[in-house]
Each structure stands twice: as structure tokens, then as C-alpha cells.
User: Which sequence fits this backbone?
């Protein structure tokens, strides 16, 4: 699979006109969130159901505390980032039912993009018991993994390494092989944990080396193609920069 530039992500994902799309995992997920928002030519609301760095706003207009500053005042001509407030240097997210309400209001927006967990800037993770925090009406879940996690020691590269190792069936001091990564990505306790059976599931591999045939990434893609059901997909993204 040839990596595609992140600016073409919306096209590569073949998104519907209306989507409530949740991002989980690591590998530059927040950067991906905002790049996707800018690439969509639709009325797009960006938010989180957990926490994000206060300055991670993607350069978008920020609406803080949507209950006192209603989104109806937003004109929809450019994406907007919505948070409940700021505390201890973190943007505080919104409750999932609010994302469902926005998505249900066809006059308000076309797309709601949600960061549904955190990875502490690591390229891969497995979810804790309370993660991910997904809205009920989520239509698509993007599970993100950075290619720089592959072939590296799990304890060194992954967030929640004990959970990654448990889902992969190894110990955290072993390397994250493509087969192990695919197991975590498709495990009921892994990246799509809690995802509705109706939601489309897409694995996004970021930070793919520029060579067309990076062997370790290609191996992961092959493992995933065998493991994912026909209605789900894997997309590899060549990032020029990940914050």
C-alpha cells in the first residue's frame, strides 16, 4: 500500500456527507484530527470527550463552554473547536451526549470530529477500562498507530504498555511486531474496544516512511487485511510533520 499525503485523508477515507467520527490511539492523533478538519469542505465541529493540551486547537476558532456561548452563533464557514473550559493547562472536553445532540441537528453541522482518548504523545496504546469515550451515534472510528512503534520495545514506545502486551499476548519488554500490533488493533480489548457494531472501523497508520514499500508497515497492512472484516479498512498516511 502506497502512503498518501495527510492532506488527502478525507478523500482516502471515503467519508459520508454526514459523519460523527471518533479518533482513538496514538501516532499523532491530535494532529490528524485537525488536519482532517481542515481538509473537509463541510460544516465541521471538532472536540474531545477527554482532555487535550490547552494550546492544541489546530488554529481553529475556539468556543469555550458551549452552554453559555451557543454553537448557533457559529456560522459554519470554517471548522470550530469546542471545549467545556480549561483547567491545569488542559482543554476539558464535552460529554458524549452533547456530541450526539450536535450530530442530530442537521441544521447545525455536517461532521463532528471527536478525540476520544489520549496517548501522551506515544505512537501506540491500548485503552484503559474507562476508554475510549465514544458518543453513542459514532459512525466511524479511526484507530491510529504510528509506524515508528513497529519493531520497537513495547515498554519504551507504547502508552499503557502492560495493556498493549496483554492484548498482544506477550510481555512488555518484547518488540511490537506487525502481528502483535494487528492483534491489539483488532482485539475486543484493543483499539476498537466499546465500538458499536454499526460503526465503520478504520485503522490509520501514520508516520509511514516515504519509501513505497516499507517492509514492516507493509507487513502490518497484510496482517490487518487478513484480520479486518470486509466492511472495515486500513489506510496508511505519510505525515510530513506530527506534533
Assistant:
Amino acid at each position: 500500500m502506497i502512503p498518501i499525503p495527510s492532506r488527502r485523508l478525507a478523500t482516502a477515507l471515503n467519508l459520508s456527507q454526514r459523519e460523527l467520527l471518533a479518533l482513538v490511539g496514538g501516532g499523532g492523533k491530535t494532529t490528524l484530527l485537525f488536519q482532517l478538519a481542515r481538509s473537509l469542505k463541510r460544516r465541521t465541529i471538532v472536540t474531545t470527550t477527554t482532555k487535550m493540551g490547552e494550546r492544541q486547537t489546530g488554529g481553529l476558532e475556539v468556543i469555550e463552554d458551549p452552554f453559555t456561548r451557543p454553537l448557533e452563533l457559529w456560522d459554519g464557514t470554517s471548522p470550530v473547536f469546542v471545549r467545556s473550559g480549561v483547567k491545569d493547562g488542559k482543554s476539558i472536553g464535552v460529554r458524549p451526549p452533547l456530541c450526539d445532540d450536535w450530530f442530530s441537528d442537521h441544521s447545525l453541522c455536517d461532521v463532528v470530529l471527536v478525540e476520544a482518548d489520549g496517548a501522551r504523545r506515544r505512537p501506540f496504546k491500548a485503552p484503559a477500562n474507562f476508554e475510549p469515550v465514544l458518543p453513542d451515534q459514532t459512525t466511524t472510528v479511526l484507530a491510529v498507530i504510528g509506524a515508528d512503534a513497529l519493531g520497537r520495545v513495547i515498554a519504551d514506545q507504547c502508552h499503557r504498555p502492560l495493556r498493549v502486551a496483554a492484548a498482544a499476548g506477550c510481555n512488555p519488554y518484547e518488540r511490537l511486531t506487525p502481528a502483535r500490533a494487528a492483534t491489539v488493533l483488532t482485539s475486543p480489548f484493543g483499539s476498537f474496544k466499546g465500538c458499536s457494531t454499526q460503526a465503520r472501523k478504520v485503522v490509520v497508520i501514520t508516520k509511514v516512511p516515504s519509501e513505497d514499500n516499507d517492509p514492516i508497515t507493509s507487513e502490518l497492512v497484510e496482517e490487518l487485511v487478513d484480520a479486518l472484516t470486509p466492511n472495515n479498512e486500513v489506510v496508511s498516511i505519510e505525515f510530513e510533520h506530527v506534533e
